Amino acid sequence: MDNENEMINQMVNENPPEPGKKFNWGTFFLGVVAGAFLSTVVFSVSFALVKHESAPYTVTTTKVDNNDSKSAKEDDTEEQDEDSKTDEYESVVNDETMAKLQLLEQTIDEYYIDSENVSTKTLTDGMYEGMLDSLGDVYSVYYTEEELTALMEDTNGIYYGIGAYISTDDTTGLPVIAGVMDGSPAQEAGLKEGDVCYKVDGKLTESMTLEEFIRNVKGEEHTKVLLTIVREGESDYLEIEVERRQIQTPTVKYEMKEGNIGYIQITEFDTVTSDQFTEALVTLKGQGMKGLVIDLRSNPGGNLDTVCEIASQLLPKGTIVYTVDKDGNRVDYNCDGKNEFDMPMVVLVNGYSASASEILAGAIKDYEMGTLVGTTTYGKGIVQRIIPFSDGTAVKLTVSKYYTPNGINIHGTGIDPDVEIEYDPEAAENGVDNQLDKALEIIAEEIG
Fold first, then answer.
1. Are 349 and 339 in contact (CB under 8 A)?
2. What residues are labeled active site?
3. CATH (domain of 162)
4. Do 295 and 320 share a domain, yes or no?
5. Tens of pLDDT along 266-276?
6. In terms of residue numbers, what domain contains 274?
7. Residue 306 and which of 9, 127, 361, 443 are 20 to 30 A apart at CA?
8. One Pfam match, by short name (predicted)?
9. pTM of this prediction?
10. Residues 21-55: pLDDT tens digits?
């Protein structure tokens, strides 16, 4: 890793659910207005590959001996099909493919029923997307300029918008306010949960996707957006003008539980998350915390730098995580151990705890710093890198696998909890979180 391209970023997120899997917050968090994060998406991009000198951890690079039998090589050598290898890469950009592209373009123009509405940009973006799709890797994708801009806003955790959560109304199919952030422009303007957005700046929303609606709500700081609202109990439309301001996505929530047990929930690892976690940890310690529960349930992952910063506030001296690329280059992320956590700790995980969440959970488990409670994690042990181009577009490619301190790659298998307990949805309807209760019980017993 070098400094020549600071726009390249390591990512350890974006976990499209496997068939039958769905993040339990679904489309709710799809629309943090002007900063929707998906992984799902989530997309955690700070666009800084090399850590600053002030980082609480260090990075070292070594070369892995491909003859070694360490776990990093096992996955690669066993899964490769020797017959599919070629001695040299043969470029697909040649006279033959260019001629075929021209033929396809002419054929579309001549025969496609709606060809007059197909733009050149749509076709070219489709070609680029198709090349990435051909890799058969759901994590390797092409970003248009607009998508990359939105991605940067989303994953930095700071954006210019109104501070509302957006979902889709089940009855009308229109965008609906699913919630507003405390102190946000949306709250100040009087927007309420359940408000259906009929128009945005005079444009009907019925023909917009949720993403298109969000893009219309986004804008430059201190500009205004006019929302035409349908509110239950009101006979007329409401016209509500909201000023766009800088919004910081809250990714950390915390409170002190009974028995002086601290509780910190991390919803994703954005560039703002480390500072938010530090504030939570310092505050809880100041309140006399005797033990800590870290809730990583349904956390899809995020920024590699961020999770290493947080891990450095908890782990002893040693490796937090390491990655190995296709050429055998190993990169270790190391903690100096100066802030090693010295209280009982439990980490809550489930099948939607992925990527960066698994890095933190895996390190805590390997160092026996805490107890993992819940269900087996998602199992994403690969790292993506975003590589931008001069035209404002970019590609995201899977570039390496990551390993826990004990050399375990959890891709496709996940991390098993120390104490397995399924979430009880029926109990949750009565306000009982049985997994959290179990975590608190374990901490209380350790405190004595």
1. no
2. 355, 366, 380
3. 2.30.42.10
4. yes
5. 999 988 999 99
6. 252-447
7. 443
8. Peptidase_S41
9. 0.73
10. 333 322 223 222 222 222 222 223 322 233 334 56
